[in-house]
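Summary of Year 1 activities. Much of the first year was spent building the evaluation harness for sequence design. The harness presents a backbone, in tokenized form, and records the residue chosen at every position. We chose the following record to illustrate the format because it has been used consistently in internal testing since the harness was completed.
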């Protein structure tokens, strides 16, 4: 169950073109920035907002899509989105660990915003603490 907060919600699964029930995963970056100390423990408590299967997979291309996670942080909505791909044996993995989309801006100890390359390892840490693969597999199975 998704807690109530002021974030754009998604439906899980595939939604056709022109259907406004599905939020584009990449809209997360348009949300106001949420500043967060990179070296502090994650307290974002992100929840699954939705997953979209863009390609069901076949002999030429694997099953793939994107997923969005978010929460209402102390200073506004915070979210992360990324593309995923299903590889053999049903394993779901990040399509590109350096291509996470977020409005969370990580700060160093001097209060300066980290570059995308500096922030990537910490953001990936956050992603890997989420049960996102289970959610993606659930959506894939619902639409098999």
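For this record, the design step produced the sequence shown next.
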């Amino acid at each position: 169950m998704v807690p109530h907060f002021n974030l754009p919600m998604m439906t899980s699964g595939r939604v056709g073109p022109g259907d406004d029930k599905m939020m584009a995963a990449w809209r997360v970056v348009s949300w106001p920035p949420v500043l967060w100390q990179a070296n502090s423990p994650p307290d974002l408590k992100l929840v699954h907002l939705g997953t979209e299967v863009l390609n069901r997979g076949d002999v030429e291309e694997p099953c793939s899509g994107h997923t969005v996670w978010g929460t209402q942080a102390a200073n506004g909505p915070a979210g992360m989105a990324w593309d995923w791909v299903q590889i053999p044996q049903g394993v779901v993995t990040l399509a590109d660990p350096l291509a996470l989309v977020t409005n969370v801006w990580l700060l160093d100890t001097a209060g300066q915003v980290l570059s995308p390359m500096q922030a990537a390892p910490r953001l990936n840490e956050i992603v890997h603490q989420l049960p996102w693969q289970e959610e993606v597999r659930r959506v894939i199975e619902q639409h098999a």
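The beta strands are 34-37, 47-55, 64-73, 76-87, 91-94, 101-102, 104-107. Quantitative recovery figures across the full test set are reported in Table 2.
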